[in-house]
Amino acid sequence: MKIDIGISQEQRQAIAKGLSRVLADEYTLYLKTHNFHWNVTGPMFNTLHLMFEGQYTESATAVDQIAERIRALGYPAPGSYKQYAELSQIEEEPGVPEWKDMVVQLVGGHETVARTAREVFQQAEQADDEATADLLTQRMQLHEKTAWMLRSLLE
């Protein structure tokens, strides 16, 4: 059935493609944060263990919202590790770094999601896609704030 929501097929396709990159970044960051939650040690254990749990829980909700927006635009949402690895700008961590490196990596991950969201926001804005723009604004705010909070642990 034809989708007639006031956004052209070409614009919907471009936005969905961009949102797929946001989804891949968000999901990769979710996995990394969950890994660090399980494996953090050291003097900051309790603080980071709880902080990471809050962060990955929030990301789990976000990936669903992003994927559902892609579907509402009429395109399939990526859903495999292979697709995420191809689309994400966030590097996976194969080992268990010490807590400070975990924090540094997560700062970088949150900043990456914010940058990707900002790129896609411009496409959504040009297409008058307020729903996607709102979703991306929320993601940018959250990731910029989280990056700031994590950076503060290192100062």
UniProtKB/TrEMBL annotation:
Any one Pfam family here would be Ferritin
**Occurrences of domain Ferritin/DPS (ranges):** 17-155
**Listed Gene3D superfamilies:** 1.20.1260.10
Query: What InterPro entries does this protein's entry cite?
Result: DPS_DNA-bd, DPS_DNA-bd_CS, Ferritin-like, Ferritin-like_SF, Ferritin_DPS_dom
The family assignment reads: Belongs to the Dps family.
PANTHER family of this UniProt entry?
Answer: DNA PROTECTION DURING STARVATION PROTEIN, GENERAL STRESS PROTEIN 20U
Which protein is depicted? Dps family protein
Organism in which the protein naturally occurs? Banduia mediterranea
